[in-house]
């Protein structure tokens, strides 16, 4: 598996291109991502969103049309593709496939596990491919996603952190912003984060 990373827009949202068996998966194409993606793919097969916030989905529609490939998002965040809850105005997009919970997908022979970790958004998910988590805005290097946005939930964030703490296998984490880390490293701080979120 080859992973290309490019931070996009003012929020420096990481857009990823994952290449497996000469096929490319595009994850979270944010503001201004189109040209970079087009310049770096030869056989794209899908666009995957970790969640519906504008800075992760801005270039969805343009890439869908240019590359003629399907878009996937967890069903509880699909409404954000139509109307941004954060007051921004990204181009509207429509998902071709709505992911249900912790769903295992096979896209052109590539096995992809969506794992729902709600809290930051109702359908916030990580995308698991082999031993890598594309963690969106759930987990970062020594931090977690915000839970004070419209449609965020501190109760769901606590449940998601508790769920993540129970996972025994380690994964390399590629977050929606910032540098990579590992699940085991971030699990060490989760008890603190759980107590902090509960107290807010």
How are the SSEs placed, and which strands pair?
Blueprint: E1 2-8, E2 13-20, E3 23-27, H1 33-40, E4 44-48, H2 54-57, H3 60-67, E5 71-74, E6 97-99, E7 104-107, E8 110-116, E9 125-129, E10 132-136, E11 139-140, E12 143-144, H4 154-165, E13 172-175, E14 181-182, H5 183-187, H6 190-199
Helix pairs in contact: 4-6
Overview in brief:
This protein is an alpha/beta fold.
What would your notes on this structure say?
The chain is an alpha/beta fold and 200 residues long. It has one domain (2-199): Ribonuclease Z/Hydroxyacylglutathione hydrolase-like (Metallo-beta-lactamase, Chain A, 4-Layer Sandwich), CATH 3.60.15.10. It is 24% helix and 32% strand. The strands form three sheets. It has a six-stranded mixed β-sheet, covered by helices on one side. A six-stranded mixed β-sheet has the order 7-8-9-10-13-14. Helix 4 packs antiparallel against helix 6. The longest helix is centred in the last third of the chain and has 12 residues, at 154-165. It starts with a strand and ends with a helix. The model has no long low-confidence stretch (mean pLDDT 98).
């Amino acid at each position: 598996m080859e992973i290309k990373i490019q931070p996009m827009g003012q929020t420096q949202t990481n857009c990823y291109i994952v290449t497996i068996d000469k096929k490319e998966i595009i994850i979270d194409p944010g503001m201004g991502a189109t040209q970079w993606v087009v310049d770096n793919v030869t056989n794209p097969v899908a666009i995957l969103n970790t969640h519906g916030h504008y800075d992760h989905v801005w270039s969805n529609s343009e890439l869908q049309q240019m590359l003629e490939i399907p878009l996937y998002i967890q069903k509880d965040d699909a409404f954000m593709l139509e109307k941004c809850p954060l007051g921004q105005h990204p181009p509207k997009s429509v998902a071709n496939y709505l992911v249900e919970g912790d769903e295992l997908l096979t896209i052109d022979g590539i096995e992809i596990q969506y794992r729902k970790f709600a809290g930051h958004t109702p359908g916030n998910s990580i995308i698991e491919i082999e031993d890598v988590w594309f963690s969106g805005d759930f987990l970062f290097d020594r931090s977690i996603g915000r839970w004070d946005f419209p449609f965020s939930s501190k109760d769901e964030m606590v449940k998601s952190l508790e769920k993540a703490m129970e996972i025994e296998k380690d994964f390399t984490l590629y977050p929606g912003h910032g540098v990579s880390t590992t699940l085991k490293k971030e699990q060490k701080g989760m008890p603190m984060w759980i107590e902090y979120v509960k107290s807010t």
